[in-house]
Amino acid sequence: MRFLLQITYNGAGFQGFQIQNEGRTVQYELERILKRMHKQFVRIHPSSRTDRGVHALCQYVHFDTHLNLTPEKWQHAFNSALPDDIYVTEVKRISEDFHSRYDCIGKAYRYKIYQGLHRDVMKTGIETYYPHELDLDLMNEAAQHFLGTHDFTSFCSAKTEIENKERTIYSFKVTKTPDGYDFHVIGSGFLYNMVRIMVQHLLDIGQGKKDGSETVAIIAARDRKVAGKTAPAEGLYLEKIYLTAEELEQDVPAGTKIIMKNHPKPLTTDPGML
Rounded to whole angstroms, how far apart are CA atoms 31 and 42? Predict the structure, then answer.
């Protein structure tokens, strides 16, 4: 049997999602519980592998099991043993040919900054302090250059091991909030540090350090050195994972062409599994 977990977590206390040689990880906490229940190691498969300090409002993982438990009992088993900074919000039994990573067709990220005369220690680890004056129109104008399908080599970490750096951005908006700004981006997928590099690029434009019209040339250069610095991890949230085209179409501009990596598979083959 294959089960899908929808989880949320505060990334401030983790070295990232994926297991590391040292430090806490989200993957370890989940697999620790599965190992205790199965008396043997059970691998989980995430839709996304967030970096150190990055949060998730919605993340999916699936695992296979021979244990005959209902979704409600699985949810209770996890939440009664997980630390306070991870929570399982939903559990579904899914088709055994559905994969939470390979059948993910899109992701949404939100980057949150706050402003003010002083840094707020209560927001340490959950939002980024950026006290400089910003031009909202300039940032939104430049953000539109990211839309469409591009090679994002200039906007990903030099440590990125994936050879194909082509991704599609469906929507990118910067909005004013009561205490700062939110950067919201939806795409087919994202490379290592990609969102944080794009956000810092827009912040530099909003502050007047860069000319937004240069964004097109920076993308075309396919050179990490020309894109500038990387925004801190603490302000970044994995906000949504899209597993169906219908979900994605609701959040992107009307008429947007959705890129399907493979033939879509249903989450379940039997309504009774839910």
Answer: 6
